[in-house]
Specification:
Helices cover about 60% and strands about 0% of the residues. It has about 90 residues and is mostly helical. It has a single domain, classed as ACP-like (Non-ribosomal Peptide Synthetase Peptidyl Carrier Protein, Chain A, Orthogonal Bundle).
Length: about 90
């Protein structure tokens, strides 16, 4: 895959994630790639479980216990990077 295709894929992943976050969590109506998800308090632990289930279902990725690490969950951009690595 060339660099442009990889960038488009990440852009599509990020767009999908941000759309889900906006629809599911009203406090994240203005979410973008750098919006803090953990620090904002807009998503509780159950919400993160729902989010990870959405990512698994939407992108067909298998989740492992170690995937539930804060470094994967801090921002929508980090979530998109995480999904990209799992694809």
């Amino acid at each position: 895959m060339n660099g442009t295709a990889a960038t488009l894929a990440k852009t599509d992943i990020l767009r999908t994630i941000c759309g889900y976050l906006r629809d599911r969590f009203p406090a994240l109506a203005a979410v973008d790639a750098t919006t803090p998800l953990l620090e904002s308090g807009a998503i509780d632990s159950l919400g993160f479980l729902e989010l990870m289930t959405f990512l698994s279902d939407e992108f067909g990725i298998e989740l492992e216990d170690e995937d539930f690490d804060a470094s994967n969950l801090e921002t929508a951009g980090q979530l998109a990077d995480f999904v990209g690595r799992k694809l």
